[in-house]
Amino acid sequence: MKKEVLYLKIAKVIEGQISSGTLKLGEKLPSIRSVHKLYNVSINTAKQAFLELESKSLIEPRPKSGYFVSKTSQRKFSIPSVSQLKSYNEEPTEDLISKVFNTLNSKDITQFSLGAPDKSLLPIAKLNKGIVKAVRNFEDGGTSYEPIQGNVNLRRTVAKWSLVLEGKLTEDDLVTTSGTMNALFNCLMAVTTPGDTIAIESPTYFGIIQIVKSLGLKAIEIPTHPITGVDLEAIKKVLPQLKACCFVSNFSNPLGSLMPDEHKKELVRMLTEYDIPLIEDDLYGNLFFGISRPKPCKYYDEAGIVMWCGSVSKTLAPGYRVGWVAPGKFKEKIIRQKFSQTISSPALYQEVIADFMEHGRYDHHLRTFRNKLYANCLQFQRAIEDYFPDGTKISQPQGGFMLWLELDKAIDTAELYDRAIQQKISFAPGRMFTQHNQYNNCMRLNYALEWNDKLDADLKRLGDIVKNELK
34 with 66: CB under 8 angstroms? Predict the structure, then answer.
């Protein structure tokens, strides 16, 4: 049996013991050395099993004491519900999206709604030094056009950083874009025409819905599980109707779900069989809580149908708008579209990001950032269980920085938003993440914020607002 499969098998056994109550809250687990002897596996395999359980918040380490069953393993709140398969039926949400976005620059509002990390969590000083360095290194100060395909240093560095793809990408496979949204837009434009039908997750990032509308497309919302992602059986039912699929396979926004490797492999297999392009938004892939970065669907792509999109907007610099796409067999079309739209991407910020990834200890920043996000996720989940009404459902992300809450059906979060904003608290109402009249009792919270007493107090106030709605 392969080591990867074996450590997951061991983790599953221990997880079952926690679920059944054989291992109780606060109880100490057998040591890593004991697991190593009991299962006749290497110490490293035993460690991987424990890290897998820790990534799911089922166990927690205590200095010099070992591992214990964590509080979050006994969560009183269950995970959110899964939607039903729905055909295209557009419902306008632009006014709600505009209402939320109009508050984003208000410094006195707690921005649980923002889809970007707080600046306190980003290496801004190092990036500023990188700007000075890039200006000095450019003969023209960065004022000239870059090649249409994008900055060579950035493309080479991204290809080197894509270790999870095991060398399947080179700099020539990549095209730079103005962030991931621009990459997704260009990919959809390259493989569809107005009136075509595509598949998206449900709930899905509202920006994807806006792209769908702007391109005159129709979208089928695929039921998405909060833990394992899109329902493959539901996709099979609509395959003959589809011109393309657009999914976030790693830590989706807003659910935080992670497609298992076997699901990714099967998804690529069946889309390849039908020659249906998969536009893969892997924006959150580096923000994992487990032991290693999850593979993208692109890893399993042999026919060039997967268009792998990414950027540094969620890890380094949202405002730099530096992104990329590995478009597979659609590369030349993407390049032609980019030429007709922008000619080239801005040179300066591409060079800054390339230099930071190469020499700025990007790996160190990501480790620190992931640890902070994981700690915040646990803090938010604890606060929500303490402050929100019984019956609240909460997602259990394994990466990224979004939490999805499902409240009592009597609550309309679009109306709740107006009450919260009066108390200087902003969140993203669930209705923003669908084209249908659903998720009205849901909300998305961003936990990539600096945790402090004020944040805890604001979550309590938000919980109190929800409770008052039920009186």
Answer: no
**How does DSSP classify residue 288?**
B
CB distance 280 to 249 below 8 Å = yes
Contact assessment for residue 223 and residue 201, using Cβ atoms and an 8 Å cutoff = no
Q: Residue 348: CB partners within 8 Å, gap ≥ 6?
A: 131, 134, 135, 138, 142
CA angle at 159 for the pair 357 and 339, rounded to the nearest 5°: 100
**pLDDT score of 165:** 74
Closest CA to 59 of 42, 41, 37, 35: 35
Examine the pLDDT at 34 and tell me if it is beyond 70.
yes
Could you report how far apart the first and last alpha carbons of the chain are, in Å? 56
Residue range 253-267: mean pLDDT, rounded? 94
- pTM, rounded to two decimals: 0.83
Q: If you count DSSP H runs as helices and E runs as strands, how many of each does the chain have, helices first? A: 15, 16
> What is the rounded average pLDDT for all residues in the chain?
90
Task: Assign 442 a pLDDT band (cuts: 50, 70, 90).
Answer: very high
- Evaluate the omega torsion of the peptide bond into residue 254 and state whether it is cis, within 30 degrees of 0: yes
Q: Which of 312, 353, 248 is nearest to 116 (CA)?
A: 312
Q: Identify whether the C-beta of residue 315 lies closer than 8 Å to the C-beta of residue 123.
A: no
Phi, psi at residue 290, to the nearest 5°? Answer: -85, -160
Q: Is the per-residue pLDDT at 340 higher than 70?
A: yes
CA distances to 50, 51, 168 from 55, in Å: 9, 6, 27
375 contacts: CB under 8 Å, gap ≥ 6: 451
Question: Does the pLDDT value for residue 90 go beyond 70?
Answer: no
Share of the chain above pLDDT 90, in %: 66
Which pLDDT score is estimated for 399?
94
| Nearest alpha carbon to residue 310 among 262, 249, 263, 221 | 249
Q: Look at residues 127, 189, 168, 184 and name the one whose alpha carbon lies nearest to residue 324.
A: 184
